[in-house]
Design goal:
The protein has six helices and two strands. It is mainly alpha-helical. Strand 1 and strand 2 form a beta hairpin.
Length: about 190
């Protein structure tokens, strides 16, 4: 296997293979969930909108990989928007489904999570792409795993979907850090 550094692209062949494999697994996982777990009979559910948005993001990731270094900054910004949007799905779903006294308490928990993940997204764009990877993985490990079978307002299929996407996407972002850093250094 040739692992010589490709200075123009800011990555080597082994990194490209890992990134491609992660995108293939992510695409396959999203396709499987979409075909076998998503209840398509409901049309206005924020979870369905989030599923569709995830499909669009994955398609954009494939396109940015084909465009090379010129699209890396767009990809990084897209992933930051995705990180901010993930907890907003929980807030929206909560506002639609929840009622009663518990509504106020959990709403604030969901909003606090949104603020934390938004801060990680901003840091991921302004400081280091590692904040994006950490934020996306943390969303899966903390938010999604807690909501699975523990939440009255989030469907379990969505928590599983989001957990899988977050872990795979976080690994992809971590694998792309050298490309993001090369892009930033070339702009300077």
């Amino acid at each position: 296997m040739n692992t010589t550094l490709n200075v123009c692209a800011g990555r080597n062949t082994a990194q490209e293979i890992v990134q491609t494999v992660l995108l293939i697994i992510l695409s396959s996982f999203a396709t499987w969930i979409g075909l076998y777990r998503v209840p398509w009979r409901v049309s206005e559910d924020p979870c369905l909108v989030a599923f569709a948005a995830t499909v669009v993001v994955v398609i954009c990731l494939w396109l940015t990989r084909w465009r090379g270094l010129s699209a890396v900054n767009f990809e990084r910004s897209l992933l930051a928007v995705f990180l901010v949007g993930m907890p907003l799905v929980y807030v929206a779903r909560y506002l639609i489904v929840s009622t009663g006294r518990a509504r106020n308490y959990w709403l604030w928990v969901e909003i606090l999570g949104t603020v934390i993940f938004a801060a990680l997204a901003v840091l991921g764009v302004k400081r280091s792409p590692w904040f994006l990877a950490i934020g996306i993985i943390l969303h899966g490990l903390t938010w999604d795993s807690w909501h699975f079978r523990n939440s009255t307002y989030m469907p379990d299929w969505y928590a599983i979907f989001c957990l899988g996407v977050d872990l795979l996407l976080g690994a992809y972002v971590a694998a792309r850090v050298p490309a993001y850093q090369t892009s930033v250094s070339r702009r300077s």
